[in-house]
Specification:
This protein is an alpha/beta fold. The protein has eleven helices and twelve strands.
Length: 323
């Protein structure tokens, strides 16, 4: 590379000297610019051949651009950018880095919903000691329950692994092939989603947002779920028809939901999802951890080292598929 522009996260600014030297070593003789504001990032990216961190807003007239590294996983906004759609531009993402944290988030929501912890917490806030407030059957141990993981990628595989460790039966859906780890008892293809949904106690969406996954969780889908089943979403909010989900919960068509992503997002303060008793709302932060930034920078620096030396990059995105 001749010029590398790095979107510098907060931790990098706090440890600037060591961080700069560490990245410059991987970049060889290239000019390395650490941008600390959005304006600086876009301005410096106008003639860069390597851009690390952000993908949106890049200038399509930049004839030098060859590689864009997104720190996050979802790339739908990247693929709206003509600068990135050029054949000579390689796009990579942070797929797999946040998988362990998101998987634990899913399991946390699973246990809270199945053990009535939302109700327990509300009673705690009221200082209400009521051992008998839960209706019969409302506490359902997850042992031997069935979880369907829709999207057996980096995140979905970690979710499946942890669910299996709790004694759950795990099935999964993936787009391209039936192979999966030993702890997934059945891997179906995308056309089997409706059939596999009907027996699941928990349906977990970890799919990327593409034209084929937009709005797939609609009224017809929720009607196929068991009335005792829960829907959990850590993929993308726009994969769900939100009003259909609200109505499914309100009508008792499904038991509840654990949601980290939404459409619209941020979730408006007056939205019905906030007030539903059997819904967990978290603000699109399931992948956040104190370990995120160091792990991410190790990964990005390794990809920069590979690019400088002409080696294969990690996490190359298939721009036609959208992930």
């Amino acid at each position: 590379p001749k010029k590398v522009v790095v979107w510098a996260p907060r931790f990098a600014r706090q440890q600037r000297a060591d961080f700069d030297a560490w990245f410059r070593e991987a970049a060889g003789d290239a000019e390395v610019v650490f941008a600390e504001s959005g304006g600086e990032f876009l301005n410096e990216s106008r003639d860069a051949d390597v851009v690390l961190g952000r993908c949106y807003g890049l200038n399509a007239s930049n004839i030098n651009l060859r590689w864009v590294q997104r720190y996050g996983v979802g790339v739908e906004r990247c693929l709206d950018n003509p600068a990135i759609l050029k054949n000579e531009v390689v796009l990579t993402n942070g797929r797999g880095l946040s998988g362990p944290y998101i998987a634990e988030h899913v399991i946390t929501m699973t246990m809270m919903l199945s053990h009535g912890m939302l109700h327990q917490y509300r009673n705690q806030q009221k200082r209400n000691w009521d051992r008998n407030f839960l209706p019969p059957g409302s506490v359902r141990p997850v042992w031997k329950k069935e979880m369907l993981v829709v999207g057996l990628g980096g995140i979905g595989t970690k979710v499946a692994e942890k669910a299996h460790g709790l004694g759950m039966r795990v099935k999964a859906i993936r787009n391209s092939r039936r192979e999966g780890p030993d702890y997934v008892e059945y891997v179906g293809l995308s056309h089997e989603l409706d059939d596999l949904t009907q027996s699941a106690d928990f349906v977990v969406n970890t799919l990327p947002l593409t034209s084929s996954t937009q709005g797939i969780y609609d009224q017809a889908f929720f009607e196929k779920m068991k009335s005792t089943a829960y829907f959990l979403n850590v993929g993308r909010g726009a994969s769900v028809v939100t009003q259909d989900l609200v109505e499914a919960i309100q009508s008792g068509s499904i038991a509840g939901a654990g949601l980290d992503v939404f459409d619209p997002e941020p979730l408006p303060k007056d939205h019905a999802l906030w007030g539903l008793e059997n819904v967990i709302v978290t603000p699109h932060n399931s992948g956040r951890s104190g370990y995120n930034a160091p792990a991410l920078m190790i990964f990005v620096r390794e990809n920069l080292r590979r690019y400088t030396r002409g080696e294969a990059l990690l996490n190359v995105v298939d721009k036609k598929r959208g992930y």
